[in-house]
Design a protein that fits this description.
Blueprint: E1 2-8, E2 11-18, E3 31-36, E4 44-51, E5 56-57, E6 66-70, H1 74-79, E7 89-93, E8 98-99, E9 104-106, E10 114-116, E11 118-124, H2 136-139, E12 140-147, E13 150-151, H3 152-157, H4 162-166, E14 171-178, H5 183-186, E15 190-195, E16 198-204, H6 212-220, E17 230-232, E18 240-242, E19 247-252, E20 256-263
Parallel strand pairs: 6-17, 8-14, 9-20
Antiparallel strand pairs: 1-2, 1-5, 1-14, 2-3, 3-4, 6-7, 10-13, 10-18, 11-12, 11-17, 12-14, 15-16, 15-19, 19-20
């Protein structure tokens, strides 16, 4: 099931996406069956349906935190001249960095080198801590597309990545959460990124150094994850620059396409 969060006539709700289109831009024929309540508990479909073309898609979740893992693809680590970490390498993006499909990525005024990073995002479905490997599937709600937008020059200049990867609009998520992918399938999906229609990144989640299980076990040893929290699993090789006016799209097999436009203000 594809679960979207959307607004219509000033109201915000969750809905189940019905139809054959896989991309947010292919709204024709897609409808939303409005969910009663929130999707992280037992829920019912209301039977009230609205065309996807009539709503604004929002970030599919509002995480209390986004836990991201860096250098989790060997070729990506190499392209930036970094060593491959022996253990998962985590950092955070604040909740205020999250935007949805169709929202603008605002080029930060303190950077001159903005990069895209296409990633598979894991959405957590229940409160969890110290999750054993055999129970990881039980805490995963579903998967969505992410773009770990990075001010690369700032990342290189500053030892902490808070500004480089945590600025407002640096974490596009969407277009929805796909709950019908099991853990094994999620470990071998195509991840790609295009800028203005030209392919920049193309990889598979099977190329990850540390698996989804590794990442969830690692981070829950240290902290509690809450329903709606997001874990970013790293990016394949091919990261590159974004400029004012660019349209960047992240597509993940079986999920859909997350599209955003880059703008500069002032």
């Amino acid at each position: 099931m594809r679960i979207a969060r959307f607004s219509i006539d000033g109201n915000v709700a969750f809905g189940a996406v019905e139809g054959d289109g896989s991309q947010a831009g292919q709204a024709e024929g897609l409808v939303l069956d409005i969910i009663k309540g929130i999707p992280f508990t037992d829920f019912e479909l209301s039977g009230t349906k609205v065309p996807l073309s009539k709503v604004r898609l929002l970030p599919p979740v509002l995480p209390s935190k986004v836990v991201a893992f860096g250098r989790n693809y060997t070729e990506h680590a190499a392209e930036l001249g970094n060593a491959v970490p022996d253990v998962p390498f985590a950092f955070f993006k604040p909740s205020t960095s999250v935007v949805g499909t169709g929202d603008e990525i605002v080029y930060p005024s303190f950077s001159e080198e903005l990069h895209h990073e296409a990633e598979l995002a894991v959405v957590i479905g229940r409160m969890c801590r110290e999750v054993p490997r055999e129970r990881v599937a039980d805490v995963v709600f579903g998967y969505t597309c992410a773009n770990d937008v990075t001010a690369r020059d700032v990342q290189k200049r500053e030892k902490q990545w808070a500004r480089a990867k945590g600025f407002d609009s640096s974490c596009p998520l969407g277009p929805w959460v796909e709950t019908g992918i099991d853990l094994a399938a999620a470990g071998d999906l195509t991840v790609q990124c295009t800028v203005n229609g030209a392919q920049r990144q193309l990889g598979r989640t099977s190329e990850m150094i540390h698996s989804i299980e590794d990442l969830i076990v690692n981070i829950t040893q240290a902290m509690t994850l809450l329903p709606g929290d997001v874990v970013l699993t790293g990016t394949p090789a091919g990261v590159g620059p974004l400029s004012d006016g660019d349209e960047v799209a992240v597509t993940i097999e079986g999920i859909g396409t997350l599209t955003n436009k880059v703008i500069k203000r002032g």
